[in-house]
Design goal:
41% of the residues lie in helices and 24% in strands. It has 259 residues and is an alpha/beta fold. The strands form two sheets. The protein has a six-stranded mixed sheet with strand order 6-7-8-3-9-10, with helices on both faces. Strands 2-1-4-5 form a four-stranded antiparallel sheet, covered by helices on one side. The protein is globular.
Length: 259
């Protein structure tokens, strides 16, 4: 399959500590790709660098064949570990804010409320209502986002990332801290949007969620790419088990089983 996102030799260090150390991978168009790894493996730093929220020390990022290395963070839609919503705004207003940087309308159109501006506004509002229905929040459409539960705010943040109809969406811990029912809802939503043509790169600690949803999985450990491949192969790879469990813990478990 054609690569939509290509990351080559990405590196980022903080005071001499290599958070990301020469990571290379590709995300094929039309797929759901997962990125996993133990705490401190470099997952969040990797997606921060490729999406423009941090500047990499080295490496190249290409989106659909175009070099976007170091560009401002408007080329790739994404969510964050910490839920970002405007509590005082209703759900539609939250999504209208999210799509604003992607509109093809000049400031003079907005100031004069031209026909072009009104058409763009109406299209954005229709898109917002469509996504609010998709994530199951229609009954709360007129409510301020501040009354939403944590899981519902996660759904609203997902809808915001989908507002500009991106070809690639990067999700950072989309099911962290939500209940099992909500996790299944998120998986179903992602499958629907993926079937409609969107490509996803998902960073997540929930390995079961990733292996059950993704077409391809990338594993990072200590800032380096450890292994990648189909979920079943990655899940059973001894290097992945060692990275998550630790050699000492595995040896201790083996001794306990033998005794």
């Amino acid at each position: 399959m054609t690569a939509l996102l290509e990351v080559a030799d990405l590196a980022k260090a903080y005071r001499g500590v290599h958070a990301v150390d020469g990571v290379s991978f590709a995300v094929a168009s039309g797929t759901i790709t997962g990125m996993i790894g133990p705490n401190g493996s470099g997952k969040s730093t990797t997606i921060d660098c490729l999406s423009g929220f941090q500047r990499a020390d080295r490496g190249r990022v290409s989106l659909d064949g175009h070099d976007i290395t170091g560009l401002a963070p408007q080329k790739i839609a994404r969510t964050f570990q910490t839920v970002r919503v405007f509590d005082q705004f209703d759900l539609v207003a939250n999504l209208m804010v999210a799509v604003e940087p992607f509109r093809r309308v000049g400031w003079h159109d907005a100031l004069a409320r031209t026909a072009r501006y009104r058409a763009a506004r109406d299209a954005a509002e229709a898109r917002a209502h469509e996504l609010i229905e998709l994530v199951g929040l229609t009954r709360l459409v007129a409510a301020p986002a501040g009354i939403l539960s944590y899981g519902q705010k996660k759904l609203l943040a997902l809808a915001a990332a989908l507002m500009p109809k991106p070809r690639l969406v990067v999700l950072d811990e989309p099911v962290a801290g939500v209940n099992p029912t909500r996790i299944n809802e998120v998986a179903d939503i992602l499958r629907k949007v993926n079937a409609a043509g969107a490509t996803f790169l998902i960073v997540e600690h929930n390995v079961e969620f990733i292996t059950g949803l993704c077409d391809h999985v990338i594993v990072l450990d200590q800032g380096k790419k450890l292994v990648e491949g189909p979920p079943a192969e990655v899940h059973s790879d001894q290097r992945v088990l060692d990275a998550y469990l630790g050699i000492d813990e595995r040896q201790t478990s083996a001794v306990a089983e033998a005794s």
